[in-house]
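WARN retry 2 of 3 for item q-0093 after timeout on previous attempt; input resubmitted unchanged.
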Amino acid sequence: MKSGGLLAACLALLLAVLPARAGEPVDAALVLAIDVSLSVNEQRYTLQKEGVAAAFESPDLAKAIAGGPYGAVAVAVMEFSDPDRQFAVVEWTRIASAEDAAALAARIRRVRRSSDGLTGIADALIAAQQLLDGSPFAASRRIVDVSGDGMNNIGTDMTAARDRLVEAGITINGLPILSEEPWLETYYTDYVIGGPGAFVITAEGLDSFAEAMKRKLVQELDVSSAAPVARGPRQPG
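OK item q-0093 returned
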């Protein structure tokens, strides 16, 4: 074999064994932004983390992902509390099979809590946009999925951060946990979510978080379902 042919064969073999490559297309790039502020004690943190992991093991979610044109999504998991505490605890991962999703679930279960503090949702949105801008995958849709049990109480103005993401074409969906603040669904609807098809699904408490997260992910990633009516942006006052 000539040297040029040998080089081409080696390159083909290398590409065959490499993981998903930068720029490989996906149907959606999704940042899961998870509240780890002081109101989330260790028991709640464990339940929340397990709920996210269990959602990715759901056959319903695997079916939703497989139904897209590319049959794949990219996911990053970020924990947040204070304005200077947003940490990508799971970097961008391409999910194109039940096996990929199970591997992601295992990685999520191995995560150790990154911080605690106050609840900086607005700065978490800005950090999530930066993650999306740095994603190595070409995505048809960009989504931030915010879950937490409290309102934004420190840092950047909530509506200013939301509007910044909406203007960039990013959809923000919300999963408020109502155990601490029963009115949180209204707050998320009015001030947090925005963009095409944005919606809120609630969890009454962390015992119902896993099921709520599964339903939310399926609704976000199932391209065959009709998009819900967009809610927000709406200014306070």
